[in-house]
Amino acid sequence: MRVLITGGAGFIGSHLCDLFLDRGHEVVAMDNLITGSLRNIVHLQTHPRFSFINHDVTLPIYLDGPVDAILHMASLPSPVDYLEMPIKTLKVGALGTYYTLGLAKAKGARFLLASTSEVYGDPLVHPQPETYWGNVNPVGPRGVYDESKRFAEALVMAYHRTHGIPTRIARIFNTYGPRMRIDDGRVVPNFISQALRGEPLTVYNDGSHTRSFCYVGDLIDGLYRLLFSDEVMPVNLGNPQEITILDFAKTVLEVTGSTSEIRFVTPTDERTKDDPHTRRPDVTKAKTVLGWEAKVTLRDGLRLTVEWFRQRLAEMGKAG
Ligand code: UDP
């Protein structure tokens, strides 16, 4: 198959490029590099079945030749990024989904949307099944991300119902692993880089908020299975192992062997406004429909991730 991966130079997108190439497909990665990086795909530069197009998916897309599948991964999923770039966040979810769906229609391609657990907002149902409609503040700082993904899901369903496009919707829960941007502001890169630099780990507020972290290797396997399944309605993909942010900080200290202190911080900007108190996927559907569940434990996944961050920080140190 010839597969287009938007956000192909990003964290999850670049891992997907590797997976599709490993499984014998041809991959076209598209990215405008505002948060993605060519560093993530540099090892693919000379691969005979790989190509890269520098393009902003919020503008119309023209692509020569056949396209059998599109995975729309382009996104600004870090709360710090979407506070800084709220309009770009809305555009990539809305216009980016519109143009990539248009391309899927023109090429007769199947389509997978990278949606998010943020469609559930600050959830009143725990854990979150796909049938839950969510608790989102449309006018809060997170609204730009949450609503763009909710709009994207609605658009995908409209294209499916109107044009019969074989569409898939993955609701991706917190994912981590090598190639995360060190400065993207999310909790995993923040804590790991703070621990490795011997700086305090910045736990926001009282650290009682929970998240459930999925290793990227598990996630991309779930995305691959979903693309080739027949499931049109949304499917949660994540690891249901839930942990408070304070315990997560302690785990990062343990895995890195760091002696950094844990510092409780109250951000003065809007980054923790509407911060979901709890988050854990109900993965019953993924298990039943895809035969998929996350296998990598938090400690094992963190070890792999920490190793990568160590190397990356050393490279950055050398580069000055
Ligand atoms: N968080 C934290 N310290 C940080 C970064 C994040 O305590 O340096 C908290 C944040 O308030 C949230 C959780 O960690 O409760 C996860 O935040 P992240 O930005 O990784 O993504 P989210 O899951 O909110 O999209």
Main sheet summary: 7 strands, parallel
Shape descriptor reads globular
- How many individual domains? 2
Low-confidence stretches: none
Helix content: 25-40%
User: Which molecules are bound besides the chains?
Assistant: uridine-5'-diphosphate
> Would you count the extended β strands for me?
13
Could you tell me the strand content as a percent range?
A: 15-25%
Question: SSE order in H/E notation?
Answer: EHEEEHHEHEEHEEEHEEHEHH
| Average predicted local confidence, pLDDT | 97
Distance between the termini: 42 Å
Radius of gyration: 19 Å
Q: What is the count of helical runs?
A: 9
- In spatial order, strands of the major sheet run 3-2-1-4-5-6-11
Q: What is the CATH class name of the largest domain?
A: Alpha Beta
CATH architecture of the largest domain: 3-Layer(aba) Sandwich
Which structural category do the helix and sheet elements fall into? alpha/beta
The CATH H-level homologous superfamily of the largest domain: NAD(P)-binding Rossmann-like Domain
